Amino acid sequence: MGGTMTADARPDAQQREPDSTDGWTEHRQPDGSKWPMPPVDGYTVDDYFALDLPPHTELIDGSLVFVSPQRAFHSLLMFLLEKGLRHSIPEHLRVRREMAVVLGPRNAPEPDLVVIRAEGETGRRQTRYEAADVVLAVEVVSPDSEDRDRDTKPHKYAAAGIPHFWRVEMAGDHDRPMVCTYDYDPVTKVYVSTGVHHDRVKLPLPYDIDIDLTEFDRL
């Protein structure tokens, strides 16, 4: 993937224009496109869901984070993990992909995959989940998301009390998946490593999970 841009990137002030439809101030770029100009104190979750944003834009600490196109590795891993997580999921849980999770007033990241409590579903037009309904967040690391997926997001997921976190990376000479799994420690309020998995993810929590990672080579 290419580099990530945030709405903190500000062109020359002379290029600013008010948007006549919703009152938001925007930056007009040399190519005629527009970027929203962040409010002085940053965007809130309410702002985030009111704006017309590109797909998979995230809200991190009041800033909008725009993502680059996915690599094949990212897409294939999401398919493999979603299939594996669904295979043995109990009736009281659900697997969802690329949905915003509200962590607080200025944070709404979009994990690649989440396992949520069934009661967190409110309808087919739902656009977000609350952190309290998430039991597992999964992030597949891309070149433009390394710092967020390794540092920023895990800290925020832990602070929100999400019980389980997986970080998935490309590893080795053959670009195969490596899944690093973590459980939330309620005493220290941080994630504790529960393993690094290369060929198989076999875990008892948040439910009995058994995913054959070698299937990646056959996708």
List low-confidence stretches: 8-23
Query: Which structural class best describes the helix and strand composition?
Result: alpha+beta
Range of strand content: 25-35%
Q: Give me the oligomer status.
A: single chain
Average residue pLDDT = 87
Strand order of the largest sheet: 7-9-11-12-13-14
Helices and strands, in order, run as EEEEHEEHEEEEEHEEEEE
Backbone shape:
globular
Number of strands: 16
Task: Describe this protein's structure.
This protein has three helices and 16 strands. It has helices at 45-50, 72-87, 146-159; strands spanning 5-6, 16-18, 25-28, 34-36, 58-60, 63-66, 93-97, 100-102, 113-117, 128-130, 134-140, 164-171, 176-185, 190-197, 200-203, 209-212. Helix content is 16%, strand content 35%. With 219 residues, the chain is of the alpha+beta class.
Provide tags for this entry.
alpha+beta
Question: Topology, pairings included?
Answer:
Elements (H helix, E strand, L loop, with lengths): L4 E2 L9 E3 L6 E4 L5 E3 L8 H6 L7 E3 L2 E4 L5 H16 L5 E5 L2 E3 L10 E5 L10 E3 L3 E7 L5 H14 L4 E8 L4 E10 L4 E8 L2 E4 L5 E4 L7
Parallel strand pairs: 8-10, 11-12
Antiparallel strand pairs: 1-6, 2-3, 3-4, 5-6, 7-9, 9-11, 12-13, 13-14, 15-16
Task: Give a concise summary.
With 219 residues, the protein is of the alpha+beta class. Helices cover 16% and strands 35% of the residues.
